[in-house]
Amino acid sequence: MIYSMTAFARQQAQTDWGDSTWELRSVNHRYLDVSIRLPEDLRSLENAVRERLRNRLDRGKVECLLRYRPVNRQDAALRIDMALAEQVVAAAERIAGLLPGEGRIDPLRILQWPGVVEAVVPDVDAAAAPILDALDRAIAELVAMRAGEGEKLAALIMARCREMSTIVAGVRERLPSILAAQRTGIVDRLSELQAELDPARLEQELVLFAQKIDVAEELDRLDTHLAEVTRLFGEDAAPGKTPPGKRPMGRRLDFLMQELHREANTLSAKSVDKEVTSASVELRVLIEQMREQVQNIE
Length: 298
Description:
Blueprint: E1 7-14, E2 18-27, E3 32-37, H1 46-56, E4 60-70, H2 82-97, H3 107-111, H4 124-192, H5 199-213, H6 216-234, H7 250-270, H8 274-294
Parallel strand pairs: 3-4
Antiparallel strand pairs: 1-2, 2-4
Protein name: TIGR00255 family protein
Organism: Candidatus Kentrum sp. DK
Cofactor: a divalent metal cation
């Protein structure tokens, strides 16, 4: 199965401590590059999050964001650091003694002092299970979207492979007529020059010329590379990871695109026929279109 590297997923989870929302975005990249953004109170989950992503994905730049909104619990007691509050009050009274007149210390101002009211930190151990379950659902959604996008990319690439195979077959069929036309052309030019023809020398020159313009090897290699691309797209894969134990195909396909492009260039360089030259141009256009799509395959 072919997987794209472009996808988006969003999943939510509710816990006693608050609501959490996972957002996953992935785009194409040479390797797996994971960026994780978590609330400070849940920073301890980062290793578990990173491990889950690495177990399901092989390539791509992945942005993983957790939005966390704590719930105002009516039964939660307000926790006050009394020792710190007493220190703040004592310091305020000393300062007040230096000022003329008498002033009463506002209790609310004391509560606003940093650290006097202890923030209610969520129980990470209790909240971790539902939050990570939501992450697993988000990753599954991301993988499913990558698979759906990969099927569309595979269909586009296979359509272009079929077009290329048709072009290669047409060039192969034309080779004998090209050689015959070149032979006729040489004989006609020599006749115009009224030169004495040595049949043995003529055949020797034609053989040398045929070797120079011979593109049979290039056509064979084009067929071989196209068959390998077709084989890769035809491989069955179990659902799951990309899937577990399966090697990413993007790099192999990218290498095949380079080889196809090189053979098409050689075909163009050896061409002495306008139809073959036109066919090589069409091949390079199709290869470039496939290469753009392959850049997004995992």
